[in-house]
């Protein structure tokens, strides 16, 4: 698992609602060994899960 500090805000740009990639695909593409590891590290870094932020943005 990568350190949570290595998740940069630019990763958020890849998770925007318009992205055709799933959260798992984004996690694997950014070097995480599983979607769970990516989601947990993302939550530590941004205080929210990738899915919750994606849902919040798409509902605005």
Give an overview in words.
- The protein is mainly alpha-helical and 60 residues long.
- It has a single domain, classed as Orthogonal Bundle (Arc Repressor Mutant, subunit A), CATH 1.10.10.
- The chain has four helices and no strands.
- α2 crosses α3.
- The chain is globular, with a radius of gyration of 10 Å.
- The mean pLDDT is 79.
Q: What pattern of helices and strands is seen along the backbone?
A: HHHH
Backbone CA Rg: 10 Å
* Backbone shape: globular
Count the DSSP helices.
4
What fraction of the residues are assigned to beta strands by DSSP? under 5%
Characterize the biggest β-sheet: none
**Fraction of residues in helices?**
55-70%
Name the CATH superfamily assignment.
Homeodomain-like
Kindly report the average pLDDT value. Answer: 79
| Number of DSSP strand runs | 0
What name is given to the CATH topology?
A: Arc Repressor Mutant, subunit A
Low-confidence stretches: none
- Using the coordinates above, name the CATH class: Mainly Alpha
The total domain count is 1
Rounded to the nearest angstrom, the distance between the terminal CA atoms is 32 Å
Domain HTH araC/xylS-type: 22-56
Keywords: DNA-binding, Transcription, Transcription regulation
Pfam family, one: HTH_18
Protein name: Helix-turn-helix domain-containing protein
């Amino acid at each position: 698992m990568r350190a949570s500090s290595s998740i940069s805000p630019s990763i958020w740009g890849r998770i925007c609602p318009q992205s055709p990639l799933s959260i798992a695909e984004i996690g694997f593409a950014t070097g995480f060994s599983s979607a769970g590891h990516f989601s947990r590290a993302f939550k530590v870094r941004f205080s929210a899960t990738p899915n919750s932020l994606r849902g919040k943005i798409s509902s605005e």
